[in-house]
Fold this sequence. Notes:
By secondary structure, this protein is mainly alpha-helical. It has helices spanning 44-68, 83-88, 93-114, 126-145, 147-198. The protein contains 5 helices and no strands.
Amino acid sequence: MLSSPFVNRTSCIHFFDGKSTCLPPLGTPIYYTDNPSLLPWMSDHILAVTSPVIAYWSLSLFFHFLDVSGWRWLENYRIHESKEVKARNRCSRADVVLAVILQQAIQTALALYWISADETSSKADHAGKMHQIGRRLVLVFQWVLGPKWAEAALDLRGADMTYFIYWWGIPIVQFVFAMFVHFSSLCLRPAMTILRLGSSLTLGNISFTAPCI
């Protein structure tokens, strides 16, 4: 693994030679590893299945410990539920634990079935994919700046832009989009519930607050 992503720039006279892009030897970002698994003693397949369960119970037990600790200084940070909320909350801790165990058992079974455990799959062709991005950059720059100015700009920063788009730009966009989809689904669930109720009931003057707000 190279310490710097921008080395041996002199090995490429031009970023694009008319047929293909020329990228100097590039390093990989700090978050990347070419190891077959994140942990040497556990496959990524098993780690992906067990991590949500371990994280859930670790955090749940931690907050449960704080809840029953009796430390007075925590009272300033406790959310005090109204009498109406307490009256509606008829589930005991045992009911919640059993429901969570059932949900996690189904989740784990489906994950073991659907998530591939194939550890012999070929590694991603990072260089090939960056060259594809580089060729798309050439088309965009030639359309915006014209062939002459596009060549000068890409010779100067083409490798840097290709590296950033592949290793940082695309993952950031994917992560933000996943967050948008997740929180949008949280906002849509209450609205769909109201629509279903409205088809069979007269709701009257009901105030409703979505959990995404």
